Each structure stands twice: as structure tokens, then as C-alpha cells.
Amino acid sequence: MKLLGWLFNDLGIDLGTANTVVVAKNRGIVLNEPSIVVRNRVTGQIEAFGQAAKEMLGKTPVNIEVIRPLRDGVIADFDVTEQMLKYFIRQAVNHHRFLRPRIVIGVPSGITQVERRAVRQAALNANAAEVYLVDEPMAAAIGAGLPIDEPSGNMIVDIGGGTTDVAVISMSGIVYSKSIRVAGHEMDEAIIMYVKRKYNLLIGERTAEQIKIQLGSAAPRDEEKTMEVKGRCLIEGIPRTVLIRSEEVREALADTISAIVDLVREALERTPPELAADIVDRGIVLTGGGALLDKLDVRLRNETGLPVTIAEDPLLSVAYGVVKILDNMELLRKVATTA
């Protein structure tokens, strides 16, 4: 079986709005890059992928554009996504490029059948032999080590770059799931708009992300912080620096956090009573990059009255999940689809 796995060179992909993680069977994580592409507007030529492309964000000349081919967890630019997937797959298979890998891809649970087919087709066009799709909450739950095959309720909240997925899982199936297109990038946009409105200062995506990481929180911090932020003054048109407090960032993120809390509340209301009783004992598990937002677990605990824990490595929970699925053909048959 190990020889067969090597021959197929199986890959698992967490195709995220913010980052794409590629895992190779028997080799672990082989690629973790931002889902960003740089293209020349004049020639149409792709100039850079991944981290190299992210470093150009907000710094490109007029003839160069920085593209996020995935928006809100789905493919916004099919051709660019296909090229990005081809590049990442080539990097992952390395010297076994003549082999066509079987691929398992994590996708948001709320995407349509048309969007699922688009993801699958992009992977097939990127030289995949077979493509299986797995709902991200399922993959995240498996990656976080939840006993998904038992007849008991497990609730997972996966907060990515473009979508937040909540799911209740029992007996290797999703009993309830819902996805909203409010997540990490929505938080960044909220910070950009707040700084623009309050300080008449225009900042970029990378700066907003740094503010979110350093100052962002979902509940009052034990110790509030401040940060100097540089941007362009919208009134005078010149660079300016302002001092932003963590309380202000919390205010900027209030609506986004409330949307995630409401999503969890709705899931709890729609969970069958027997499974709800299990969740009272087991609690809620947070995965995805958004789970790292300071005090989010505290906020959810206060709002729901349930235990809330953060997965051991929330950024890579989906990636770890697809690895386990790749290693278990029976599990693959249960949780994956080809459509």
C-alpha cells in the first residue's frame, strides 16, 4: 500500500482564501504559501506566486496587478486559480512531475455545486488524476483530532480568510453546517474602513492585517496595547503616522465578531437535542487562522455558556485533516465527494 501511495504521489490541499497548504502523503506539509498571484497587465504573464507575490502587495507599478484568485472561499478568477494550482502542485510533486497525483481538496461547506465543479475542474486541469472534495469543517475536525466516527455530537467552528464554517458532526457525517462569507479578510476591511473614517488615514491590507494580529481582540484584553500606524492622509495627501489603541480595533471588529457569534448561536439552536447534550459536555472547537484572534474563545464561552477550546495548530487543522483522509481509504469514501 505504501508503494501504491508513492506511485500515485497523493496530495491533500487546503485551498484557502488567504493561504494554500499542500500536504504530500508520507511526506507531510510540503508547501504553505499565500493564495496570491502577481500578473503583468500588458503581457498577461504571471510574474510571481505565493509569498513572493504577497511581498509585492500594495507596492506594484501600474502595469503589474496583485490578484487574490479566491474570494470568500470560492474561485473568483478561474484561469489564475488554475495556474496557481499548477504551480503549487508542481512545487509539491518536485522530481515526480511525470506522475499525476490523486488530490483531496478542502472546500467551504456552503459553496454551490457549480463552485465545487469549478474547484474540481481547476485541479484536473492542473494535472490531477482524481479529485475528491471534502468540506473544510469535516477536514478541520479530523485534523483537530475530534472523534468524528462516534455517534456523538462534535461542533467545529472553522474561521478562515474568506469564510467562517460551523458544523455539527456525528458518525463521520455532517448533521448541520452553515458557512458565511465573514472571516479574516472581512476583519481586515473593517479595520481599513475604521481608520479611514476616524483618522482620515488610508492604510493597505498588509498594515490592516498587522493591526489585527497585534491589537485585535474579541473581548477586553488583560492589558490594552497601542501601535503606531503609517498611512496616507486623505486630507493633505501626505504620509502620516497615528497611534491606534486596541480598544479602537475591538470597536472596528465588533460587527464581524457579532456575525460569527450569531452563526454559532444559530447552529446550536438547530442542533438535534441529543447531539446538543453531547456538545454541552465536549464543547466547541475553534480552527482556522481566525481562531487566533485574542479572546475569541472567551467571547464565545461567555455568549454560549459552553466550553470553547482552540485546536492545537488551528492554521493547519484542515491540512492535517486531509492528510489523515489520504491515509485512510475507508474514511475517504465516507467524507469525500467527486462532484
Count of all domains: 3
Mean pLDDT reading: 90
CATH topology of the largest domain: Nucleotidyltransferase, domain 5
Give me the secondary-structure category. Answer: alpha+beta
Q: Could you state the order of secondary-structure elements as H and E?
A: HEEEEEHEEEHEHEHEEEHEHEEHHEHEHH
Q: Can you put this structure into words, describing what you see?
A:
There is one protein chain. With 339 residues, the protein is an alpha+beta fold. The protein contains twelve helices and 18 strands. The strands form five sheets. The chain has a five-stranded mixed beta sheet with strand order 3-2-1-9-10, with helices on both faces. It has a five-stranded mixed beta sheet with strand order 13-12-11-17-18, sandwiched between helices. A three-stranded antiparallel beta sheet has the order 5-4-6. Helix 4 (113-125) links the parallel strand 9 (102-107) and strand 10. Helix 6 (184-199) packs across helix 7, helix 7 (205-215) crosses helix 8 and helix 8 (246-270) packs across helix 10. The longest helix has 25 residues, at 246-270. The radius of gyration is 21 Å and the shape is flat. Residues 1-7 have low confidence and may be disordered.
